[in-house]
């Protein structure tokens, strides 16, 4: 399986592409990036309300990031492109064991895994979390860094409603890393449910603080 794991070099290329696009089209303001551990496995848990959330974090994060991305995005030429820049295709309608193996492989190799714990684009308020984030965090022991991507709520000037207005400011706020598990090493359904509750509380608190700090 090793040769099929997402490419760290590809993720680094994706980061460079992302930063060029994001700073070319919007005005990112990155806060707290120093909180991301410089080495070792890390999970970035990102809220999801805009189409650009993934590319934005990929571009401005201090380390190359492998995102879990729904298979529907891997269409036509985007399939080899996203795979080439180290992103992980996941089927959200089933237990995608290939995606799970590849995501865990990223963490086992000391890499950074990006996850939208809400599962799909919505209000971006972390109100509903899937259990996948807790599973990866408890299974790998990797710390979670909450990330809030906050764009303008103004609907004017948008070419596409799912995107912030071009050249508008987008704040990306990295929070303090935290452990999802309770230290027992348990991986039971009850343990994962408890971990999901702890994670949701931490992410919601970070988002509230980020909104207060940025005025978003």
Ordered list of secondary-structure elements with their pairings:
Blueprint: H1 8-25, E1 27-31, E2 42-46, H2 53-60, E3 65-70, H3 78-84, E4 88-90, H4 97-108, E5 112-115, H5 132-140, E6 144-150, E7 169-174, H6 189-214
Parallel strand pairs: 1-7, 2-5, 2-6, 3-4, 3-5
Antiparallel strand pairs: 6-7
Helix pairs in contact: 1-2, 5-6
Note down, in words, how this protein is organized.
With 216 residues, the protein is an alpha/beta fold. The chain has a single domain (2-214), classed as 3-Layer(aba) Sandwich (Glycerol-3-phosphate (1)-acyltransferase), CATH 3.40.1130. Helix content is 37%, strand content 17%. It has helices spanning 8-25, 53-60, 78-84, 97-108, 132-140, 189-214; strands at residues 27-31, 42-46, 65-70, 88-90, 112-115, 144-150, 169-174. A seven-stranded mixed beta sheet has the order 1-7-6-2-5-3-4, sandwiched between helices. Helix 3 links the parallel strand 3 (65-70) and strand 4 (88-90). Helix 1 crosses helix 2 (53-60) and helix 5 crosses helix 6 (189-214). The longest helix is centred in the last third of the chain and has 26 residues, at 189-214. The termini are far apart. The model has no long low-confidence stretch (mean pLDDT 88).
């Amino acid at each position: 399986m090793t040769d099929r794991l997402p490419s760290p070099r590809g993720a680094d290329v994706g980061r460079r592409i992302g930063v060029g696009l994001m700073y070319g089209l919007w005005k990112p303001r990155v806060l707290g990036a120093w909180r991301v551990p410089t080495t070792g496995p890390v999970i970035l848990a990102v809220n999801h309300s805009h189409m650009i959330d993934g590319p934005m974090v990929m571009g401005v994060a201090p380390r190359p990031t492998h995102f879990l991305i729904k298979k529907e995005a891997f269409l036509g030429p985007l399939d080899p492109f996203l795979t080439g820049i180290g992103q992980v295709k996941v089927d959200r309608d089933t237990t995608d064991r290939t995606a799970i193996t590849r995501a865990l492989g990223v963490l086992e190799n000391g890499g950074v895994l990006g996850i939208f714990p809400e599962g799909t684009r919505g209000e971006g308020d972390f109100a509903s979390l899937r259990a996948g984030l807790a599973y990866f965090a408890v299974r790998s022991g990797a710390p979670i860094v909450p990330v809030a991507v906050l764009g303008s709520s103004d609907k004017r000037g948008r070419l596409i409603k799912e995107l912030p207005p071009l050249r508008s400011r987008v704040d990306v706020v990295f929070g303090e890393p935290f452990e999802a598990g309770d230290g027992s090493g348990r991986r039971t359904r009850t343990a994962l449910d408890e971990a999901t509750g702890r994670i949701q509380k931490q992410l919601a608190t970070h988002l509230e603080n980020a909104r207060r700090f940025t005025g978003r």
